[in-house]
Amino acid sequence: METPDMPLNLPTAIECYFEIDKTDDLERFSECFAPKAEVIDEERIHTGIAAIQNWAREAKAATNYHVTPLSADVGEIEAIVTGQVEGNFPGSPVTLRYFFTLEAGLIIALEIKP
């Protein structure tokens, strides 16, 4: 596990996800997600890049959130990133865990949990 002042050394696809999330250039999600990737957030499943882009677009519009990755446990095909999420929602900021699964250098699954 890393501390906030140390680099997290995330796999490229995961770095790409957080960078795109910061810039709101959601069309670039195809650079980090596999075509049939799944995202599970708030018990809803979003499958495929178009659905993932819509999920992110709707979440940004509703809450204007941003994520600051704080720490990461990185394995060969899985990584857990803990991030602080701030935005226009009750209880902000919150700490969430991002469970990533990678295949061939792309994200095939992402689950976001408290």
Automatic annotation (TrEMBL):
<feature type="domain" description="SnoaL-like">
    <location>
        <begin position="17"/>
        <end position="107"/>
    </location>
</feature>
<protein>
    <recommendedName>
        <fullName>SnoaL-like domain-containing protein</fullName>
    </recommendedName>
</protein>
<dbReference type="InterPro" id="IPR037401">
    <property type="entry name" value="SnoaL-like"/>
</dbReference>
<dbReference type="InterPro" id="IPR032710">
    <property type="entry name" value="NTF2-like_dom_sf"/>
</dbReference>
<dbReference type="Pfam" id="PF12680">
    <property type="entry name" value="SnoaL_2"/>
</dbReference>
